[in-house]
Amino acid sequence: MKKIILGIITVLVLLVIIVLVKTYTYPFKKVNVNAKSAMNIPQNDSAIYRFSGGLKIPTISTGELGDFDYTSFDQFKKYLKETYPLIYQHTEYQEVNGYGLVFKLKGSNSGLQPILFLSHMDVVPPGDADVKNKEENIFRPQDKPAASPKEVAEDWDYAPFSGAVANGRIYGRGALDMKGMLFSLMESLTTLIKEKHIPQRDIYLAFGFDEEVGGRKGAVKIAEYFKSKGLEFDAVYDEGGIIVEKGSISGINSDVALIGCAEKGFLSAKIKVKGLGGHSSMPPTESAIGKAAVIMQRLEDHQMKPMITPLIQEFFDNVGGAMPFTNRMAIANRWLLNPVLLSQLTKNNSTNALVRTTTALTMMKGSDGTNVLSPEVEFVVNFRLLPGNTVKDVKDHIAKATKGFDVEIEEVDNTREASAVSSTKTKAYKVIESGIKELYPEALVSPYLTVGGTDAYKYQIVSKNIYRFIPFKINHAEQQSIHSTNEYISIENYMRMIRYFEYVMKNYDK
């Protein structure tokens, strides 16, 4: 008996030693403790003014393309042409499907594959929140910058289409999503033209006009246009990753630049559950709504299996050095602690989205009367597919959850598989990394999974190197202003965006 106990103790001691050795020797990327100071970028009031003017144009996209106010989009096209004449004079310009805009700056070596930068001009509606200051034409770029908010604002400081410049910020719907990227690209390309800088390879800009409602008429058609021309891009750059401030990601004690090397897929299913209708005074044993509730509970209680994909493992390898010891220990010893690690990750909404196909019940409809039993109840469940899961996997999962019930299942919106995963070993990725280090030397740089949808996946037909990243640093409250209230971008962030894209354009082949 003593030998058995001694043997168990010996095994446990050896196990602890192995775990500790693996933790301390695991090759986490080093945290930038002694990073050089961030580059000081002069403020360009003229660039701010041009951007402000673009935010004043309400290029709102709605559910149906026929409902668009195309007058605003015509106005926006005209504004770009008047504001950036050098680009229209020195690039090949093409309109695709009426409002998709494509610019090509010719490089010196036509044998090299071109690079492509994306953005979109459409914005979501601003909502009906109150406006604190309704004064027009506010342009105070020399204001002292206000502190970053700790909570999401309930009201707009300035009207959503005022383009107000105050408090060190540029306010307006689209400031972050995505006119900031669009205008910074136009500014960067203008700089190249002014300086007579000829890149080695062709540089393309492509701007969609319906990204917020699926991109079927904008990005899809532009990608098809490129395909018809036989183009294959060495890199495609779009939105989808940002620089998050220290503490924004639970357990990571560092700023982190998140480069989206893939994005999740999408499937929304409308599930109609059938039962007996009638008057509530004589209800059946099982109502349609009760059956629907059982199915919904199954979907929430038995979600798709979590897993750490190679992309997320690489993310942990890059940021693990800025995490507490226990987190590093779990990452370094997945062979032993993988169930513990997954258990912790799935308890947090943001990290749960990185390791599983998520399930979200979004809509439900029953009867129209308080005393009426509907013979049919319908609800919508949305899945965001993790790379490694397929649309078929999700359909099988739904079938299992609805087993035993009389249901009809209909896919709604645009079902799509998760995107391909782009490599972090390419020139296209390395130039992003070096550009970030120039502007944000203190930030860890890591590949990441973009959990929302972008136009980027539509360009898989013309490139295998697709990266989603916007070079601005914002906190959680500022992130929440996207599609919400009081959207703005700091002047500092906007200046850094311009410099970043200029860096990538100039240094891609260095």
Explain what the structure shows.
The protein is 35% helix and 21% strand. With 510 residues, it is α/β, with parallel strands linked by helices. It has two domains: 45-260 and 420-507, Zn peptidases (Aminopeptidase); 264-416, Alpha-Beta Plaits, CATH 3.30.70. Helix 2 packs across helix 5 and helix 5 crosses helix 15 (491-507). It is globular. Keywords: Hydrolase, Metal-binding, Protease, Zinc. Pfam families: M20_dimer, Peptidase_M20. This is Peptidase.
List descriptors.
Peptidase_M20, Aminopeptidase, 35% helix, single chain, 15 helices, alpha/beta, zinc, 6-stranded mixed sheet, Alpha-Beta Plaits, 4-stranded mixed sheet, 510 residues
Topology, please?
Layout: H1 2-25, H2 45-55, H3 70-83, H4 85-90, E1 92-96, E2 100-105, E3 115-120, E4 131-133, E5 156-158, E6 165-166, E7 169-171, H5 179-194, E8 203-208, H6 219-228, E9 235-238, E10 243-244, E11 256-263, E12 265-274, E13 278-279, H7 288-301, H8 310-319, H9 325-332, H10 334-345, H11 349-355, E14 358-365, E15 372-373, E16 376-385, H12 391-401, E17 407-416, H13 427-439, E18 444-450, E19 466-468, E20 473-474, H14 476-480, E21 488-490, H15 491-507
Parallel strand pairs: 3-8, 3-9, 4-5, 9-19, 10-20, 11-18
Antiparallel strand pairs: 1-2, 2-8, 6-7, 7-21, 10-11, 12-16, 12-17, 13-15, 14-16
Helix content: 25-40%
Mean pLDDT score: 96
What structural category do the secondary elements indicate?
alpha/beta
Indicate the proportion of strand residues. 15-25%
Tell me the Rg in angstroms.
26 Å
By CATH, the superfamily of the largest domain comes out as Zn peptidases
- Write down the domain tally: 2
- Going across the biggest sheet, name each strand in turn: 1-2-8-3-9-19
CATH fold description of the largest domain:
Aminopeptidase
Q: How many strands in all?
A: 21
Shape: globular
CATH C-level class of the largest domain is Alpha Beta
- CATH architecture grouping of the largest domain: 3-Layer(aba) Sandwich
Parts with pLDDT < 50 across at least 5 consecutive residues = none
N→C terminal distance = 69 Å
How is the main sheet built? 6 strands, mixed
The helix tally amounts to 15
